[in-house]
Amino acid sequence: MKTSLKTLVICLGLGTLGLSACNNDNNQTSAKPSHITLSGTAATGAALNNASVTASCQGGSGFNQPVSTDRNGKWSGQVLANSLPCALQAKTANATLHSYATTSGNVNITPLTDLAIALASRKHPAEWFKSNQAITDSSINAAINELNQQLTGKNYSLPANFHLFNTVFNVGDAFDQLLDVFQASLTASSASIKDYNALLELFATSGNAALLPVAAPVLPPNVQTCASKNLPTATLSAIHDYAGDYQDKSTPSTGATIFSLNTQTGSLTANGINATIRQVCGPNVQNNGTNHVLLTDKGNITLFKTTAGKYSAESADFSGFYAEKTLAITGCESNGADDKLGFKDAPQDFCSFSKASSVAIKSPDIYTFFNADKTQNVKVTVENNTVKSIQLEDNNYAWACGIGTLATCNGVNVDQRNANFIQFPFNATVLSPVNGTQQPLTIKNGLLIHIASQ
């Protein structure tokens, strides 16, 4: 397309005004739409774990990718920058909550945001979400103010600088405790208000926040002691070897550090919740190990150490978890021989490997060597007469090379004398940690032999 001088002058004039009404058909571009982030916490007091979070925004858009909560109720997603406001819904099999985002940043999804929406929209939040009804700023602000007045007037303890939609909170803090008190108060008022859904209906139909139940008295907790659990009392120094970080081993497992114990300060963190140890109970000696119970200001945790030296921690409190400790390496060293591997930088309880038996399979060629009780094994995979991978493990540890993204195997050769005899001499073969430790292990020297008639 040709542009006349007259047209060019007009377009240049519009350009000085910040307008772009003139385009050359041969040079059209379109800006990529920008997104903003919405994030927050979904909780009833207890976190909504693995809840699906849906956004219904202006123009019919929503999150650009599926969004769900983690075990602490945390979620985050992106919407088009020009699509606000957005109605939000967090849903599990047992609970559905709603919220409203008018700007980017933190947006909570709780029973209190549900109630505010019911007041402002005069609809049950589930129906409001389906209808895609916008709420005016004045309506939502009036609902927030009314709820704050009722919460304060009915003896709820509000956190400092409290905003029920936007204040960032975590499971176990003052905001979360407010939600716990609300749930307890709703249960205590069941004679007049059947359940939470009934309260939402009342708020929607009447627009009367005074129907909020009075805060139930916070009763002193049933404080447990070592004596009440029929366990002896121990000191923090008695569990000093339990100190450190523990990785998630629940089903399914994230592998992340979810429990950390500091025996010097008497503090711990479990699932993101900080707690102080009130008492250490134990030891309780069992056939397969020893446990201690930690009584804290936030809940109880059981520590266990097997007879093989494996540490674990678990609790039904702190949103529930099971974790195992990454074991420390103490630098044990040994020498190998025929059918024995010597290690360097190894743990004291796995300082060498002695072969007692072996098996082999073909296509792929895999040779597996076992110790006497088969609690330890070395697996060697051969491809094109070269060692492709090595796996070394026992009940507590595992190392490998040549698997996935791990480093290739070096320092080991294939020596096949005949169809029935093959041996693998090792010399400074470095294996990467896979389980139970974060430190590599070196097979210092030694020789593994497989004879087909075995």
TrEMBL record:
Superkingdom of this protein's organism: Bacteria
Protein name per UniProt: Uncharacterized protein
Secretion signal, residue range per the UniProt entry: 1-21
Keywords: Signal
